[in-house]
Amino acid sequence: MTAIRLAARRPIFQCLNAPATRPQLRRLAQQSKPQREHLADLEHVSVHRAEAMRRAQLIRRRNWLALGAALSMIAPMILVRFWDLPPDAENENAQQEIEEDNKSRGVLDLITPRPTQTDSPRAATDEFQGKKVVIAPGDKVIAAPVDAEHPTASDVDTIELIETGTSYVPYFPKTITLPVPTGPEAVESQAEYQLLGLGIRKVSFLRVQVYVVGLYVRSSDIHILQNHLINTVNPTASALIPGEKEDLRKALLDPQRSTEIWDAILARKGVDGVDMAFRVVPTRGTDFNHLRDGWMRGIASRTDEVRKRQADLLRQQATENKQIALPKPVDEGEFGDESFGLAMKEFKGLFQGKGKAPKGSVLILTRGKDGELGAWYQPTINTNKGEKMGETTKLGSVRDERVSRLVWQLYLSGQNVSSEEARKNIVNGCIAITERPVGTVEGRVL
């Protein structure tokens, strides 16, 4: 190839942005072996550094993603626990009225000082079911008509109240009136029930308040319950002394003994039975399905405990070759028959399709002398003058006594109860009625 032809192939001008020409393989082959090994080492170091950089980037990305996931779970918990809901228009108007009332009246404050108002975020502490809340003689909290000037706890149209410990549902009535069947024809008549103890049901580790529940006992049956509790400790006594009261308290708080005591009390029927009722008031808006599912889960866990206890007993009897006839804690197959399954369907159907249960509405579960469970509901109605209570309606009933017995045990006995605070207060109420002779505690429960 001549020099002229080679010169024609070479460009006279070369672009500065043109990529550098790659070395010819012949030139690499002509390099010495140490030089080739040195280039290979440099190439290996570059690949290793690139891999390390990529791995560090992925680790940083993983850490940021994990931090974001943790914050997305923790932030809602903090907001639910500590962030207050904005006040609605009614609360704002009530707050403005309170601020206007708190303005100084000059000399009038010295002559006729106003009563001290409690610090509460809701105006519900100033009224109860359309009545004003005042302090009566004897430091009793009562709900009296608005136009009453000097109300007392003994007035017919007043309601004595018990503080619940939460501002969402600040008060429970000491007595309630419920319809009960009387006579051979089961004609409904009104009967008075007295509060034995109450507490707040809380869920999750955040201790979120769900509802306030209180146990009421029919006033005419208090002496029956009193007699049963006293006979548990001392069958020959008419009242318990301090040492015996402490023994009864420990027994009612013990998982095993409390189950035995309340099983014996709830098994009584007829003249020895005790009419009782649970009053449930939600502290926040919920629905009947949520309440029903909670009771259904609790009943399922209690029936599983009974089956497990029965299986352990049968296993123990088999180990001893049935030489000793041990007493059975429950009848074999008590909750395994078809009738119990139908009764549970009836209980579930009581709350089916009932919709919402707003804050402040009242749900009452009753248990008659024959163990029949009844459900009553009193909604809240929004009016121009605020909230008021609607008419009480009956949701239905379940005749199988096993259903009501299991519902009662959810709050009174066992290792885990729906509200430990409610159980302790109910136990305190039970101790209070056993320290007086039988028949002398009616009207003096709390």
Automatic annotation (TrEMBL):
Annotated ranges, domain Chalcone isomerase: 192-427
Record field: transmembrane: 64-83
Keyword Transmembrane attributed: yes
Range of residues in the leader sequence: none
Keywords per UniProt: Membrane, Transmembrane, Transmembrane helix
Superkingdom assignment: Eukaryota
Region (Disordered): 91-125
SUPFAM superfamilies reported for this sequence: Chalcone isomerase
InterPro entries in the record: Chalcone_isomerase, Chalcone_isomerase_3-sand, Chalcone_isomerase_sf
Pfam family, one: Chalcone_2
PANTHER family in UniProt: FATTY-ACID-BINDING PROTEIN 2 (PTHR47284)
Name this polypeptide is given: Altered inheritance of mitochondria protein 18 mitochondrial
Species in which this protein is naturally found: Paraconiothyrium brasiliense
